[in-house]
Write a structure and sequence with these properties.
This protein is α/β, with parallel strands linked by helices. The chain contains 14 helices and 13 strands. The strands form 2 sheets. The chain has a 7-stranded parallel beta sheet with strand order 3-2-4-1-5-6-7, sandwiched between helices. Strands 8, 9, 10, 11, 12 and 13 form a 6-stranded antiparallel beta sheet that branches. A hairpin with an 8-residue loop joins β9 and β10. The chain binds guanosine-5'-triphosphate. The site of guanosine-5'-triphosphate (GTP) has 22 residues, from α2 and β9.
């Protein structure tokens, strides 16, 4: 009896993990991808670090098929949520509550160690029957990756476990930086193909070349650890932080510790009256200047005095990106929400500094 197509083809839904350090350009790439015709039948799961998420307001087009995994990082606290969300999506599509989807993209937090996420995706029985892991895409910010690889172990892991590397922001990088970064990436992960995306523009066709079961996913845990240890020693990259309590390496752990990013804090400041633009810019510049290393990421939806529509602002370390306007308030009511992701920082200090700058109690001294 001849083998039928159904015996050989894998009809499970491919799941791609989109990772990359804070502010590297994951949402920008996702936004570009979901607008492409070949991605019309795609569901998206977004996980953000900390209790406050803004990204789901910034991903356009897909509505019902965008799921937000809140309160925590998918590699630490919300793995159960990830599987539940995938199960829920599947059941909702079966019940025709949402349109059927043929691919899933999971955008992890910028601090996620993809190791435990991949573990969950491969080992959950429900997942394994309906979905197949289709590789990890790691977004790399050319301007900041060298510093991130030196300081943050999460960044090293994200690059090392990638099946595909997408290099962003080469349009604003200094001359000579791109080849240096390419060289570094080649040494950490020589197997992953590299693609350049400017402001997210990269054909989603690269995903077809990525999966199924990309290069990284076929490597054994031991192989990856050995290779990573070699790269860390040779290139002087950031090594794992010493956890407060002894734990298994997240690469092989079934249930990784919730405190993996314990020196990093995400907090949101909310203002319900409009901020004068110049005051906002001064205040933010002050925070950026005071904490150039500790401020890992800043993003905000702003109610600015001079603007009729909400404004979106992004920052990575001391770099600030051009503002964008949103057509309407995501929650219906005008308010500013500023999200800071910082390392070893007193959030009250930042809050007081900004309060004083945005809404000073006393008018400033004016020179004649
Ligand atoms: N000039 C330039 N800016 C870019 C590029 N890619 C992304 N950006 C900008 O970088 C900023 C951060 O991009 P996001 O897509 O929000 O980054 P992210 O990785 O989703 O951030 P987190 O979710 O906080 O980790 C935004 O202002 C983007 O417009 C690029 O290739 N060139």
């Amino acid at each position: 009896m001849s083998e039928s197509r159904f015996d050989t083809e894998d009809f499970r839904i491919p799941v791609t993990v989109l990772t990359g350090f804070l502010g590297s350009g994951k949402t920008t790439l996702l936004n570009y991808w979901v607008k492409q015709p070949e991605m019309a039948n795609c569901a998206v799961l977004i996980n953000e670090f900390g209790a406050v998420g803004l990204d789901h307001h910034l991903v356009e087009k897909l509505d019902d098929n965008v799921v937000m995994l809140e309160s925590g990082c998918v590699c630490c606290t919300v793995q159960g949520d990830l599987v539940n969300a995938l199960r829920d999506l599947f059941m909702r599509a079966m019940r025709r509550e949402i349109k059927p989807f043929q691919r899933v993209l999971i955008e992890t937090t910028g601090l996620a160690d993809p190791g435990p996420v991949l573990f969950t995706l491969r080992n959950d029985p429900f997942f394994a029957q309906r979905y197949r892991f289709d590789g990890t895409v790691t977004v790399v910010d050319v301007c900041h990756i060298t510093r991130q690889l030196n300081q943050q172990y999460e960044a090293v892991k994200q690059v090392a476990l990638a099946d595909l590397l997408v290099l962003t922001k080469s349009d604003i990088a200094d001359f000579g930086v791109l080849p240096e970064v390419e060289n570094l990436l080649q040494r950490i992960n020589p197997m992953a193909p590299r693609h350049i995306a400017i402001k997210g523009e990269l054909s989603p066709a690269v995903l077809e070349q990525n999966g199924p079961f990309g290069s990284g996913s076929q490597r054994s845990t031991q192989e990856i650890r050995k290779w990573l240890q070699g790269a860390i020693a040779e290139l002087g990259l950031a090594s794992p932080m010493k956890p407060a309590t002894p734990t298994v390496s997240p690469l092989i752990a079934n249930a990784p510790v919730a405190s993996a990013h314990s020196d990093i804090d995400a907090f949101c400041l909310r203002y319900t009256k409009p901020i004068p633009t110049a005051r906002f810019l001064d205040g933010l510049r002050m925070v950026q200047m005071r904490y150039p290393e500790r401020l890992l990421r800043f993003k905000a939806i702003l109610w600015l005095e001079e603007q009729d529509t909400p404004v979106v602002v992004h920052g990575v370390h001391d770099q600030l990106y051009p503002i964008m306007n949103l057509p309407a308030w995501p929650n219906g009511e005008p308010a500013s929400e500023l999200v800071f992701i910082m390392k070893q920082t007193d959030r009250q200090e930042v809050e007081e500094m900004l309060q004083e700058e945005f809404f000073p109690k006393y008018p400033r001294f004016q020179y004649e």
